[in-house]
Amino acid sequence: MSDPRKTPKSKYTAERDFPGSFEGETVTRRRFINLAGQGAGAVAVAAFVLPALGFAAGSAIFERPEVQWETVGVPDDFPNDTYVPKVVTEVTGIGQTGKTTIYMRATNDQDPPPNPATLHEGTTADFVAISTRCMHLGCPVRYVDASQKFICPCHGGVYDFTGKVSGGPPVRPLDHFYVRVKDGQVQVGPRYSVNSEFRRFPSYRDPGQALDGIGQYMYPGRFSTPKLD
Amino acid sequence: MKLPKLPLPPAVIPNALQGRPQRPGDEQRDGPIGQVKEAGISAVDWVDERTSLSGGLRWAMFRKVPKGTNWFYTLGSATMFAFLSQAVTGVFLAMYYRPDAAGGAYESVRHITNEVFLGEFVRGMHKWGSSVMVILVFLHMARTFFFGAYKYPRELNWVIGGVLLILTMVMSFTGYLLPFDQRSYWATIVGVNINGTGPVVGPYLSDFLRGGAEFGATTLSRFYAIHMLMIPGAIAALIGAHLYLVAKLGTTAPPWLKANGDERLEQDRV
Fold first, then answer.
1. Which of A49, A91, A177, A218 to mutate: most B Cβ within 10 Å?
2. Which of A1, A171, B93, B235 has its CA 20 to 30 A from that of A44?
């Protein structure tokens, strides 16, 4: 910089000799065209990347499916001392793949009284519908009548008669389904999750997501689960 | 330290493509037969004159390798050939496969295995080849680790290798669902739920992978698209970068070899 010949004549621009440039300009035309070109490129890339990402993630994460009610029988079908397996459709359009077994019974004296504050209008607490989705990692549990327990084949999760964890790796009780009685038919609706105190979480969580204490904040509800009302 | 600039070795051209000095009794090169004989050389020359490919090939292929280079150094190439085998068999499997969650996927895989000519063989190559690739990736990684070949200036290549390892795992995970039998289905349920245990973002990541809150019709298509379009391209590009850095930086000598000092300095040693 000590060489006076190399010192730019203007402190603003080294291109003051370009036609049209003037002393004191802060944005040279070269810089302007550079930024404009790169900006146009960024806009062009964003114009196809952002819609593509939204397309891939949007309906998967933000689309709320409709509530479906499926008739599974009449009230007399369900005893209150054991479970009756029923098959319901969770996902339509994919045949057998979208079906799942649930276990149902009538409520008995040992069950805790339902909290009216968490019971949705139109649903009933007279029946219990328990999901077979293990709350460890989602394998299908089966109900063993001899021991009155739900047992998972994958990693040894065990649940008692009410669906509460009695052994193994599961992090919370088995999911339930809303039940209603309409025109004398028992109908099964959306799934809901419960924590170990059987508090209801209407936007159900995936297996492996604990809902006690900090867990309910670590695993927030989703937009992709059906919502009553 | 400034490394001495080594001259590139001369081009090695296969004998068949090398020009031969004119000898008495030979037919004239200018004649039609002579031109046909020279056609191969001319074609290679024509391309080379317009691309200078031979220089790049010499740069990539005829490198100096350190003393002590041994069979362990072939694990990287072995991994790459495992990937190429997966790519080729995968492309042809896609000609018969149908990602239909209502039962068509299982049926098309059954068709490939039981009815298509060589179907069981090609599917077997793809299925067992995936395990071979994972094993080779880990052996290659172990070689790099135990030989200290991840150190300066090759850290970036180690990082690229780590990304390639993760992408290979994603390939294994997404490919496992495609046969769509009981094992595939439940393994994917378990795998997606393991993803979901990540705090805060986990539930949304699961929704993204499944295409919704439940394992549905789009889950299989999603996994298929990720398996055959998204990840293979990324793997191929990163293998290119990986190889470029290997050619640029050279390979390391095994750790049990002592570096040879400069001969002039050797004399000064007491």
1. A91
2. B235
Which domain CATH number covers B244? 1.20.810.10
Would the CA dihedral through A111, A114, A119, A125 be positive or negative? positive
Please answer yes or no on whether B185 and A137 come within 8 Å at the CB atom.
no
Whole-model pTM: value is 0.84
pLDDT value of position B148:
94
CATH 2.102.10.10 fits A70-218, yes or no: yes
Say if the Cβ atoms of B207 and A222 lie within 8 Å.
yes
Specify the residue for token string 């795992």: B169
Q: Least CA distance to A224: which residue of chain B?
A: B213
Chain B residues in contact with A138 by the CB 8 A cut-off are: 186, 189-190, 192-193
The dihedral through the CA atoms of A79, A83, A84, A88 has a sign that is positive
Taking the CA atoms of residue B173, residue B174, residue B180 and residue B182 in that order, the dihedral angle to the nearest 10 degrees is 20
Residue B143 lies in a domain: yes
* Residue B263 confidence class, pLDDT cut points 50, 70, 90: low
Domain range for B94: 75-249
Q: Is residue B26 a part of any domain in this protein?
A: no
Q: Is A184 helix (H, G, I), strand (E, B) or coil?
A: coil
Alpha helices (runs of H) in B94-214, residue ranges in sequence order: 104-114, 119-146, 155-177, 182-196, 202-210
Q: Domain limits of chain A?
A: 1-63, 70-218
ipTM of predicted complex: 0.85
Q: Is residue B258 part of a domain?
A: no
Residue A57 with chain B: CB contacts under 8 Å:
208
Interface of A with B in 168-227 (CB under 8 A): 204-209, 218-220, 222, 224-225
Q: Has residue B210 got a pLDDT over 90?
A: yes
Check A206 against B217: CB less than 8 A apart: no
Residue A98 sits at the chain B interface (C-beta within 8 Å): yes
Distances (CA, A) of B87 to A207, B22, B122, B238: 34, 47, 12, 15
- How many domains, chain B? 1
Whether residue B166 lies inside any domain: the answer is yes
B193·A205 Cβ contact <8 A: no
